Amino acid sequence: MLPSITYLDLETTGATPLKDRITEIALVRFDDGVEVARWQTLVNPEQEIPPFIQQLTGINNEMVANAPTFAQVSDKLLAFLEGSVLAAHNVRFDHGFIKAEFKRLDYTLRQKVLCTVKLSRLLYPQHRSHGLDAIMQRHNIISIARHRAMGDVESILSFLDSAKLELGDAAILNAAKQLMRGPALPPHLDGLSLEDMPETPGVYLFYGENDLPIYIGKGLNIRARVYSHFSRDHASAKEMRISQETKRVEWIETAGDFSALLLESKLVKERQPLHNRQLRNEQQLCTWKLNTELDAKPALNLLHEEDINPAELGQLFGTFKSKKQAVAALRKLAEAHHLCPKILGLETGEGACFSSQIKRCKGACCGRETLIMHNLRVQQAMMANRLRVWPYAGKIGIREHNNENNKTQMHIFEHWCYLGVIEHEADLQEIIKQKQPLKFNLDTYRLLLKTLASKNIELFQFTS
Predict the structure, then answer these.
(1) pLDDT value at residue 115
(2) Phi first, then psi: what are they for 283, rounded to 5°?
(3) Rounded CA gap, 258 and 252, in Å?
(4) Which runs of consecutive H residues, i.e. helices, occur in 207-303?
């Protein structure tokens, strides 16, 4: 196998590293293929073990009451792991718990890891399941201590022994080396390791030579998303430039994808990174506002983004990047529905419009059609492009929670406008009672429309 590899298994009080704790550690270390150390210990988790976990593992509160805490065994564990690859079945789980425990001790663990689930997939691609129970069944492995740390380590070792007999040492070694190669960042990123980055949702910022970000992005898995920028075959000159110009990476964890999208949009507009042209909002938004008087002339007025009142979105139709685009869209609509360009404000002058003369206008400009009838047809023609009326009596909150980083965020909105985010319940009343000017943002409007259409959200309604 590898020059030094330590097979490890943990038992814990639950599945979340940031709130649950370790109750048992077991490991076996091999150097140059020879077993050199074997160690196991119960660990006092300094919290109650849930009944379900007690039943599953057989470890109860009385058993760990006088056991050492993780802080008391941390140095010994580090000594076993030093210079060795940490191997475990679903290593992300065990490695995540150990990293979280060391983080509580203000120590950052940097450890090469090998996942025996992935190893099994590489060695036996013909099988669908690679959980420990499935592997034990396939290889006729019997354990009298399943769900105890050392029992599970020994089951993994039995699996590897069986695989060596079936496939040979070389196949095991090649598969392990293939997994160990793993992803790596380019050398010009000042020694930043992928292991430093979380595998949770959030926003990442790429910096060049100064303190202004050159690119801001988001991902459900920050580590994988950042790595994708440097591992892909660059499909465009822009991607190549981002990869070459990036000298430093920062990231901000969020509670989920919705939180990451909101933060990405906010940071891009605030910091204007060079390579985020799509979200930078460089062009001024325009929309058509329908005149509430049915006999009004013109029937529509063009509004720019700063003049939009979010409470009147039901009177607005269409979103356009420029006045030119808005006028072109209205002309097309007028032609399709035989509307009058003069009444719409697209033409000036006295008398009948040109479209009326060639029978493409029903004559509202020269008395053949009443203004009221014409403007009713304008409303009907534009209805498909009408912006949505706010469907709630007041403010709403959308909450996201992430079990992996134990992060909870609630985002507050009113009339499609984003008011802010809270991470602590104590701040909720302050932001609900707060009166602040509402500023319409098209990106937020579209994101919120899509999110509210989903059934998988936690939504709260607040009344003033």
Answers:
(1) 93
(2) -95, 150
(3) 14
(4) 222-231, 237-245, 257-271
Cis before 298? omega within 30: yes
Which pLDDT score, from 0 to 100, does residue 235 have? Answer: 54
Architecture of the CATH domain 194-271: 3-Layer(aba) Sandwich (3.40)
Looking at residue 375, its amino acid is: N
- The size of the chain, in residues, is 464
Distance CA 72, CA 25 (A): 13
Encode pLDDT of 357-371 as tens digits. 888 999 999 889 999
Please list the helix, strand and coil fractions of the chain in percent, rounded to the nearest 5, in that order. Answer: 40, 20, 40
For residues 1 and 18, is the Cβ–Cβ distance under 8 A? no
Question: What is the pLDDT, as a whole number, of residue 403?
Answer: 77
Helix 237-245 and helix 222-231, axial crossing angle in degrees, nearest 10: 110
197-224: pLDDT as tens digits: 888 899 999 999 888 999 999 999 998 8
Domain over 4-181 is classified CATH 3.30.420.10 = yes
List the structure tokens of 95.
């490695």
Residues with Cβ < 8 Å from 63, sequence gap 6 or more? 42
Please report, for the chain, the start and end positions of each structural domain, with discontinuous segments joined by +.
Answer: 4-181, 194-271, 286-385, 395-462
- The confidence score (pLDDT) of residue 402 equals 87
What residue ranges of the chain have pLDDT lower than 70?
A: 1, 182-184, 190-191, 193, 195, 231-236, 279-283, 464
pTM for the model? 0.67
The torsion angle over the Cα atoms of residues 158, 162, 167 and 172, rounded to 10 degrees, is 0
b vs e for 263-302, b when ≥16 Cβ sit within 10 Å of the residue's Cβ?
A: bbbbbbeeeebbbbeebebeeebbbbbbbeebeebbbbeb
The dihedral of CA 260, 261, 264, 266: what is its sign? negative
Confirm if 195 and 185 have CB atoms less than 8 A apart: no
Q: Characterize the bridge pairing of strands 300-304 and 248-253.
A: unpaired
